[in-house]
C-alpha cells in the first residue's frame, strides 16, 4: 500500500521519490499573460525537497525547467500545474 503525505497547502501527494534526473514543466493558467520573470517555483521546489519527492533542487537532479502559459477558462480559477518527468 502506498502511503500519502500532505504538503504545505494540505494537498495529498502519493509517496513518490524520483531517483533519476528530472525535467519539470510549470504550466501557469492565468486571466492575463504574466511576465516571464514573474513566475518562480523556488518555494514549490523547496517544498518538494522537504517532502522528499526530489533529493535536492540542484542542477544535478533537475536537468531543465520549462514554463508554459494559457488563459483561464471563464468561471474557472487561476492555477499552476507542475509536472515532473524522469529523464531516461
The side-by-side strand order for the widest beta sheet comes to 4-3-5
Count of domain modules? 1
- Which range does the strand content fall in? 35-45%
What is the count of helical runs? Answer: 1
Average pLDDT figure:
81
Distance between the termini: 26 Å
The helix/strand order is EEEHEE
Radius of gyration, whole Å: 14 Å
Give the biggest sheet. 3 strands, mixed
Low-confidence stretches: none
Relative helix content: 10-25%
Pairing-aware structural class of the strands and helices? Answer: mainly beta
Total beta-strand segments: 5
Note the overall shape. elongated
What is the strand and helix layout of this fold?
Blueprint: E1 4-6, E2 12-14, E3 22-30, H1 42-50, E4 62-71, E5 79-86
Overview of the structural elements:
- With 88 residues, the protein is mainly β.
- It has one domain.
- It has one helix and five strands; from the N terminus they run βββαββ.
- The chain has one helix spanning 42-50, and strands spanning 4-6, 12-14, 22-30, 62-71, 79-86.
- A hairpin with a 5-residue loop joins strand 1 (4-6) and strand 2 (12-14).
- The radius of gyration is 14 Å and the shape is elongated.
Amino acid at each position: 500500500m502506498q502511503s500519502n503525505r500532505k504538503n504545505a497547502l494540505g494537498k495529498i501527494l502519493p509517496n513518490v521519490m524520483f531517483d533519476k534526473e528530472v525535467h519539470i514543466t510549470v504550466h501557469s493558467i492565468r486571466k492575463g499573460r504574466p511576465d516571464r520573470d514573474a513566475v518562480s517555483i523556488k518555494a514549490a521546489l523547496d517544498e518538494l525537497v522537504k517532502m522528499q519527492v526530489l533529493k535536492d533542487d540542484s542542477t544535478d537532479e533537475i536537468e531543465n525547467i520549462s514554463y508554459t502559459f494559457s488563459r483561464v477558462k471563464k468561471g474557472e480559477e487561476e492555477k499552476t500545474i507542475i509536472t515532473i518527468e524522469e529523464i531516461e
